[in-house]
Structure formats: C-alpha cells, structure tokens
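Working notes for the structural subgroup meeting. M.R. asked for a predicted model of this chain before we commit to crystallization trials. I am recording the input and output together here so anyone reviewing the notebook later can reproduce the run.

Input as submitted:
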Amino acid sequence: RLPQATGVAEQLSRLMYFAIYDARLSRCRLALDLIDNVVSRLNR
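Returned structure, recorded in token form:
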C-alpha cells in the first residue's frame, strides 16, 4: 500500500505542477491578447 500512496502523491504533485504551468501560460496569453488589442486600436 505504501508504494501506491507514493505513486498517488507523485501524480498529485505532477497535476499541481501542470496546473501552475497552465496558469502561467494562460496569463501570458491574456497579456498577449491585451497587447494585441492595444496595438490594433493604435493602428486604427
């Protein structure tokens, strides 16, 4: 049962890592979208 528990802990840590990574990516996309909107308004 102990190996299973450590396996679950590893999976959880991976999920947390991917969640944090995904959050960073989405923040970058949001920032890029904002910049894109500003640039398009300036070009008009």
